[in-house]
């Protein structure tokens, strides 16, 4: 008994140009959010390599860290920072849509939820930075 296969000639496969995501701003912003993950992953690999250099001793770490003083590496880190900030903002914005906050019978406006998330992020980041500065020799 043979399996019934659909006739492939009747299936519709729309032709999509490779630059389809440039047609609308919302598509472009979505693709930039997805691209941000690649840059953040590259940064994390470099960060893990940096931690590994710490295990080899101060001399190896200093030699490794000096490479990051070149303009190319500084530009890379600026791009990663921009992507990380954009990714964080879009995460907060989407969380306000996916998980709306309700107090009593009223929903908190999405913009307020995003601002609350950003405020909490700034507070936590400030506390962590203060702790690092306190314990820095």
CATH architectural name? Up-down Bundle
Number of domains: 1
Note the gap between the termini: 78 Å
Please identify which CATH superfamily we are dealing with. Answer: Fumarate reductase/succinate dehydrogenase, transmembrane subunit
β-sheet strand percentage? under 5%
Largest sheet, in brief, is: 2 strands, antiparallel
CATH topology: 3 helical TM bundles of succinate and fumarate reductases
Number of helices, where a helix is a run of at least 4 consecutive DSSP H or I residues: 4
Specify the helix fraction band.
55-70%
Q: Unreliable stretches, pLDDT < 50, 5 or more residues?
A: none
| Overall spatial form | flat
Describe this structure in words.
With 137 residues, the chain is an all-alpha fold. The chain has one domain: Fumarate reductase/succinate dehydrogenase, transmembrane subunit (3 helical TM bundles of succinate and fumarate reductases, Up-down Bundle). 69% of the residues lie in helices and 3% in strands. The protein has four helices and two strands, in the order H-H-H-E-E-H. It has a two-stranded antiparallel ribbon with strand order 1-2. Helix 1 packs antiparallel against helix 2 (58-66), helix 1 (25-55) packs across helix 3 and helix 3 (71-98) packs across helix 4 (110-135). The protein is flat and about 70 Å long. The model has no long low-confidence stretch (mean pLDDT 90).
Summed up:
The chain has 137 residues and is mainly α. It is 69% helix and 3% strand.
């Amino acid at each position: 008994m043979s399996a019934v296969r659909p006739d492939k000639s009747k299936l519709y496969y729309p032709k999509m140009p490779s630059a389809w995501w440039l047609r609308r701003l919302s598509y472009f912003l979505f693709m930039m959010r997805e691209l941000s993950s690649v840059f953040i992953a590259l940064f994390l690999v470099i960060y893990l390599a940096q931690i590994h250099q710490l295990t080899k001793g101060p001399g190896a770490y200093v030699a490794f860290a000096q490479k990051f003083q070149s303009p190319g590496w500084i530009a890379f880190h600026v791009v990663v920072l921009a992507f990380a900030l954009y990714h964080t903002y879009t995460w907060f914005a989407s969380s306000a849509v996916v998980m709306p906050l309700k107090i009593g019978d009223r929903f908190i406006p999405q913009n307020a939820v995003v601002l609350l998330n950003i405020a909490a992020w700034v507070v936590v980041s400030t506390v962590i930075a203060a702790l690092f500065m306190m314990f820095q020799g």
